[in-house]
Amino acid sequence: MKKRQFKTESKRVLDLMINSIYTNKEIFLRELISNASDAIDKLYYLSLTNKDIKVKKEDLSIMIDIDKDKRTITISDNGCGMTEEELENNLGVIAESGSLHFKEENENQNDVNVIGQFGVGFYSAFMVSDKVTVESKSYKDEKATIWSSSGVDGYTLSPSNKESIGTVITLHLKEDTEDYNYSELLTEYKIRSIIKKYSDYISYPIKMEVENSRKKEDSDEYETYKEITTINSMIPIWKKDKKKITAEEYNNFYSDKFYDYKEPLKVMHFNIEGNVNYTALLYIPSHAPYNYYSKEYEKGLQLYTNGVLIMDKTSDLLPDYFSFVRGVIDTEDIPLNISRETLQDDKNIKLIAKSIESKIKKELLSMLKDERDKYEDFYKDFGMQLKFGIYNDYGMNKDKLVDLIMFYSSKEKRLITLKEYVDKLKEEDKNIYYACGETNDKIDLLPQVELFKDKDCEVLYLTEYVDEFALMALGEFEGRKFVNVCKESADLSTEEEKEQIKKENEDNKDMLDTMKETLEGKVETVKFTNKLKNHPVCLTTEGEISTSMEKVINSMPTDEKINASEVLEINVNHKISDKLKELYEKDKEEFKKYTKVIYYEARLIEGLPIDNPTEMSNLICDIMANK
Length: 627
Ligand code: ADP
Fold this sequence. Notes:
The protein is an alpha+beta fold.
């Protein structure tokens, strides 16, 4: 016999289970049955491609036994089983999928919530047991092993003579306490009702020996006898009649299956008959998983054929821009032994994927139309993914997604669609204006934005780094061009005003050129502007690349660095303009200091970094001291 310690993380979860005062302890059975079902799925799936593994579909089942005298519940399955090493790795270390992630995400939640809202897996057995043994024989090993543990002190591994492939888990129930009647779990009635409640849809029979009574032959007396019956209906929820499924059932299925502790935002359950036949039960989550915007997140739908799981995360069924959708597809129109490689080229998979995509889009559009608040909630978490969708693949999918994206509006003070923006425009308005920044509040304070707001011109606020790239990929919307208000060319002034400022710039050409030289190539142009109202200066750009694009591209981990062509614009109506002109005549040294400070200032307003903050602060102090 080998003695082992649990890993620290496991110990904590285990301790939490053992001492839990959580009242809904009965979920342990759901967890163990779900593991058993997964193990059977795995073996069955392997048998489809590996001739050495012989499985008869009709034999696959999960068996529950109750022993009142020994106070034990046994859950047996004829699934894939575990080798000694797997027992150690799977049960000695807390599963990655469940509670650990939850903990990271919700550091402040208390333990009761952890259990209630999450699938806690195998360890939940310790909520009701003071000792658990797992006897298992893997399909890939001759030897069988018994894993046994009485809690945090560790576990033991010893050889077993189990002959059949599969796993038998025995729970030694705790003694009854004032708070919980563990003995009730030893009744047929209780176990039946727990299975009905949580595991009815499991696609393999969950069997149990039950007591029945019948009339004796040739007599009026009754006798009791025992027989093994199947407790679950085995009809997966998606195959049930929609009208008979409650919202709670949909939600329970979702949280069990996809380990989400929050209810989904939308449930889509439909049946398609046509070129390809399938049933879908899809969910739009109400929040993004913690790893959603990272490489670790794996998109995909569960693929079943005839109620049997074929593939867990079938990525080919979902486009990247709808990767947030979770759910199940059941179809008879694909070969049972389909693999990841053959799947990609399967014509029916392609048809299903196309049909699902259009269903999801329709659902989102109708949510946007009829349930605006809900859509905005959705958009907060997943909008970025839609915008990536527009930008990625050289804009190939932009037309499909353009109606789904929204931006914050300077006028409405909430998210609006591009259509809503354009619908308010007059015939002669040719542009859709936007501005970029870290937050809506910061954009609202940009000098360039102030001017547009003043002229009653609506500006869209772009706060995510993908935003401007998405608009670039779109190019235009309903014949209107996207224009960054921080572009030098974004100008609402009249012809007369334009003439005036042109003259002003020509008259002061020498001075402005000297300023440009002082800034040593950092800016393309220095000029006076009449665009600004109260602010002294602003930084705009010429050409395709904006300062926010520069920020994004230069923050990427590549060597490629770009520079936006910057234009330093000085408010001609501000006192600073007169001061500059005066210094240019009287004190060239001071003039240069002012120029630098003004430039630094303009960068700060734009949220751009300052190369040399020490120089800036020294210059400011110099100027103040000379006053
Ligand atoms: P999860 O199911 O979330 O992965 P668990 O703690 O419930 O976490 O289980 C850990 C792992 O142990 C499973 O992923 C699986 O590999 C293995 N396991 C659990 N129960 C069984 C079983 N009955 N048969 C085979 N393997 C199992």
